[in-house]
C-alpha cells in the first residue's frame, strides 16, 4: 500500500494542504473544529508525517541530546543515578512528543564528535550530566545557538542554566546528625574533586566539623563501590580510633560497610556510617544505611522543564532542590 500523503489528509478533512500542514506542525492558528477534522483524517488514513520534511518547515527536530561525560562502563554499571536520570528525562520529554538522543562523551575524540553533531543541527537542545572540571563541552556548547542546561552546577565558570540538589546543606545535615549522636572522630570518604557534587559535599562536611571543633579526616573515592572499600581501609589505617564516617554517595558507603565488616568493626556500635543519595540498595545493606535523599528523578524532570522553558525564552535562574536526612540503623 502507498503511504498516505498530506494531500490525502487535506482532501479527507475538506481543507487546503496548507491548513493540514499547519495542524500537523502544531501551529495554533487553526480553528479547533478544523484541527479536529484534520486529526480525524490523520487517524483514519494512518498518516505519519515525513520527519525530514517537517524539520525543514518547523526548524525543529523534536530531539534532545542527553550528553553524559562518562564511559559506557560507568553509565551502564551498578550506579542507579544514571539509569534513573535518563529514565526520568526520557519520560518527561515523551510527554511533550520529544525524544532523547543519548550521547556518551568521555574522551577528546567523543567530545569532538558530540560538538559536531550538535553544531550540525540534529537536536533542538542539550542536557549535560556528570560534568568533570576539565570537560571542554560546557564551554564549547554554550557558544552554539542551541539551548543547553546542566544536571548539576557546571564545574567550570560558564553561563549555562542548571538544576542541582543542595549538596552542601545535605552533607551538613548528615555530619551534624553524627555530631549530635555523640560521635567524636568523624571521617569522610569524599567524591571526586573535579566534580561539583564531590567538592560541595566535602565542603559541607568540613563546615560542620569546623563549627564543632573536630578535625577533618579525609579519603577520596570516585563514587564507585570499590573506591569506597579502598578509602575505608585507608581511613582505618590512618586513624584506627575513628567512630563515624560520612560517605559522599551510597555506592561508596556500601563498599565502606564491607571494609568495616572485614576489619571486625560493628556498625553502628563501633563506627556509624552515613551515605548520600538514598538509592534503593540503601534499605537493604547490613545494617540499613542512614543517608541523605538526593531527588534524582525530580532533578532530571526539572532539568527537562528548564530546557523546554528556554525554547519560549523562559527563566534561566538555577533550580536547587532540597535533600532529606533518612535515618536508618547504620547511624
UniProtKB/TrEMBL annotation:
Name this polypeptide is given: LacI family DNA-binding transcriptional regulator
Residues covered by the HTH lacI-type domain: 4-58
Sorted UniProt keywords: DNA-binding, Transcription, Transcription regulation
Superkingdom assignment: Bacteria
PANTHER family: HTH-TYPE TRANSCRIPTIONAL REGULATOR GALS, LACI-RELATED TRANSCRIPTIONAL REPRESSOR
InterPro entries documented for this protein: HTH_LacI (IPR000843), LacI/GalR-like_sensor (IPR046335), Lambda_DNA-bd_dom_sf (IPR010982), Peripla_BP_I (IPR028082)
CDD domains, sorted: HTH_LacI (cd01392), PBP1_LacI_sugar_binding-like (cd06267)
Pfam families: LacI, Peripla_BP_3
Keyword Transcription regulation: yes
UniProt GO MF annotations: DNA binding
Amino acid at each position: 500500500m502507498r503511504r498516505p500523503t498530506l494531500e490525502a489528509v487535506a482532501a479527507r478533512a475538506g481543507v487546503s494542504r496548507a491548513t493540514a500542514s499547519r495542524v500537523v506542525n502544531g501551529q495554533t492558528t487553526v480553528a479547533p473544529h478544523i484541527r479536529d477534522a484534520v486529526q480525524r483524517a490523520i487517524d483514519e488514513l494512518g498518516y505519519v508525517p515525513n520527519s525530514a520534511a517537517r524539520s525543514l518547515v518547523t526548524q525543529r527536530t523534536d530531539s534532545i541530546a542527553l550528553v553524559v561525560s562518562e564511559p559506557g562502563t560507568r553509565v551502564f554499571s551498578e550506579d542507579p543515578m544514571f539509569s534513573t536520570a535518563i529514565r526520568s528525562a526520557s519520560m518527561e520529554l515523551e510527554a511533550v512528543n520529544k525524544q532523547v538522543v543519548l550521547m556518551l562523551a568521555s574522551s577528546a575524540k567523543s567530545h569532538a564528535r558530540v560538538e559536531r553533531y550538535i553544531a550540525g543541527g540534529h537536536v533542538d537542545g542539550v542536557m549535560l550530566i556528570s560534568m568533570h572540571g576539565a570537560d571542554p563541552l560546557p564551554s564549547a556548547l554554550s557558544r552554539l545557538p542551541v539551548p543547553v542546561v546542566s544536571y548539576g552546577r557546571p564545574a567550570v565558570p560558564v553561563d549555562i542554566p542548571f538544576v542541582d540538589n543542595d549538596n552542601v546543606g545535605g552533607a551538613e545535615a548528615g555530619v551534624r546528625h553524627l555530631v549530635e549522636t555523640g560521635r567524636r572522630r568523624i571521617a569522610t570518604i569524599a567524591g571526586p574533586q573535579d566534580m561539583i557534587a564531590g567538592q560541595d559535599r566535602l565542603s559541607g562536611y568540613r563546615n560542620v566539623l569546623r563549627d564543632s571543633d573536630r578535625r577533618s579526616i579525609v579519603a577520596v573515592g570516585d563514587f564507585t563501590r570499590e573506591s569506597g572499600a579502598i578509602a575505608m581501609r585507608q581511613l582505618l589505617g590512618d586513624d584506627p580510633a575513628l567512630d563515624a564516617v560520612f560517605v559522599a554517595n551510597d555506592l561508596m558507603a556500601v563498599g565502606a560497610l564491607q571494609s568495616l565488616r572485614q576489619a571486625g568493626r560493628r556498625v553502628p556500635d563501633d563506627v556509624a556510617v552515613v551515605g548520600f543519595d538514598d538509592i534503593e540498595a540503601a534499605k537493604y545493606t547490613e545494617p540499613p544505611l542512614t543517608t541523605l535523599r538526593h531527588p534524582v528523578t525530580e532533578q532530571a524532570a526539572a532539568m527537562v522543564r528548564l530546557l523546554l522553558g528556554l525554547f519560549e525564552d523562559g527563566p534561566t535562574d538555577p533550580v536547587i532542590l532540597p535533600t532529606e536526612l533518612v535515618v536508618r540503623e547504620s547511624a
